[in-house]
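testing teh design pipeline on a random one, pls ignore if ur not involved
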């Protein structure tokens, strides 16, 4: 019995294949909706997974428990000053409050006074000419403390970290990025070599690990390429490169009794113990810095995790829209299959009558037309998968949007294609099987 059932189904499948081959163009046009629907599903899942992984990588870069404090630029300060003056009544004089700017003392105070803070990293960024032998390039020289490397997940590939003596005395030592090593020390070991940074000679004591960061990530987060940085102790940066308490006047150093507001630091990264304390800690730090800066808001406090979560929500909405489009395409494709199959039943009424007269049962007619619908869906699904993979690759290379194609998305596409053909092919198949054989044979 099972052998007979298998033989009958094999025969029904062969008849369905012959019918599709005989009407190749119509079969292809019928499958277009499935092709575009499956292609959209593949591309949507690839873009969604790529976006999710990119967000996770960005969170690793900025740290899930981190708060970033940056000084407000001079332009922003002037705009705030103008806005304040415009709000004052006419004729009333405004007294400008003085702020020393973001400083190392602020960092130490935050670490000491805010109990939710686990660690803090101060950064002082300088643009300096780096010279070694005949090679020269302008790069960022960053004054840091050892906590900087831990907070930014940067390890050492060679050499050693700054020790207490080097940090306390501001000694002339540095740690270079992996990209700097490739630029200046392609064929030699940089550790122990002296390089000229600005007007100072510093000794290389270490090289950082390679840290891969995409251009999109750097632009979205506003972070720099850590591989092309030169890191020096922050005291070294203060003593040898920058001291805002002094200024150059008439080619000599002199004490400025009334120095203009100047930010000692370019960035502060604060790590809290618990992610749930991020918003509360940011508010406390903001109020604390405002008091220390004479109520002048010459800084901005941001929480990268919240920005990334908002970015993830935006991408999720984008993925939902893509999913809706893909679903509509599959629905339209299924309706197209049902319409064409219903038309095919009317065209092949006499063929149905002849098959029934020769001994075909109702289930044979059902299986024949059901096989046709499923085969159209599967062929459309295969083409759609190829189209989706090509589309995802195109988006990755041309639009610079990361995409990841998984085996699950391909399997899901096959299941969707088969389901659409099965669901929308049942009605035409049952209509064909319920035909009256005598009336079918009378059909011209």
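output:
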């Amino acid at each position: 019995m099972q052998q007979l059932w298998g033989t009958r189904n094999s025969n029904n499948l062969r008849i369905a294949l012959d019918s599709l081959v005989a009407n190749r163009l119509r079969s292809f046009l019928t499958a277009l909706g499935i092709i575009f629907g499956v292609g959209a599903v593949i591309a949507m899942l690839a873009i969604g997974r790529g976006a999710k992984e990119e967000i996770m990588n960005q969170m690793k870069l900025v740290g899930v428990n981190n708060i970033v404090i940056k000084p407000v630029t001079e332009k922003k300060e002037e705009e705030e000053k103008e806005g304040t003056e415009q709000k004052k009544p006419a004729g009333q004089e405004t007294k400008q409050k003085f702020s020393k700017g973001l400083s190392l003392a602020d960092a130490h105070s935050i670490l000491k006074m805010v109990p939710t803070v686990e660690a803090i990293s101060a950064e002082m960024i300088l643009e300096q000419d780096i010279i070694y032998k005949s090679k020269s390039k302008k790069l960022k020289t960053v004054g840091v403390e050892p906590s900087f490397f831990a907070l930014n997940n940067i390890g050492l590939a060679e050499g050693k970290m700054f020790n207490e003596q080097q940090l306390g005395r501001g000694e002339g030592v540095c740690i270079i990025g992996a990209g700097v090593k490739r630029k200046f020390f392609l064929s030699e070991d940089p550790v122990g070599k002296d390089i000229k940074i600005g007007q100072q000679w510093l000794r290389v004591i270490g090289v950082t690990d390679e840290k891969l960061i995409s251009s999109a990530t750097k632009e979205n987060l506003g972070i720099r390429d850590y591989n092309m940085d030169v890191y020096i102790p922050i005291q070294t940066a203060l003593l040898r490169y920058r001291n805002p308490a002094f200024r150059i006047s008439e080619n000599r150093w002199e004490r400025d009794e009334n120095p203009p507001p100047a930010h000692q630091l370019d960035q502060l990264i604060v790590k809290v113990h618990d992610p749930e304390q991020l918003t509360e800690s940011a508010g406390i730090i903001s109020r604390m810095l405002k008091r220390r800066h004479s109520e002048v808001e010459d800084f901005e406090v941001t929480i990268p995790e919240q920005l990334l979560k908002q970015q993830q929500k935006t991408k999720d909405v984008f993925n939902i829209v893509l999913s809706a489009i893909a679903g509509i395409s599959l629905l339209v494709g299924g309706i197209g299959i049902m319409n064409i199959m219903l038309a095919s039943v009317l065209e092949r009424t006499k063929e149905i009558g002849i098959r029934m007269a020769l001994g075909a049962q109702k289930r044979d007619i059902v299986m024949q037309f059901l096989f046709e619908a499923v085969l159209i869906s599967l062929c459309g699904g295969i083409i759609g998968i190829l189209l989706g993979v090509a589309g995802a690759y195109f988006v990755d290379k041309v639009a610079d949007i990361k995409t990841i194609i998984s085996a699950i998305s391909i399997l899901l596409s096959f299941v969707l294609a088969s389901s659409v053909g099965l669901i929308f092919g049942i009605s035409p198949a049952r209509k064909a099987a319920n035909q009256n054989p005598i009336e079918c044979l009378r059909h011209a």
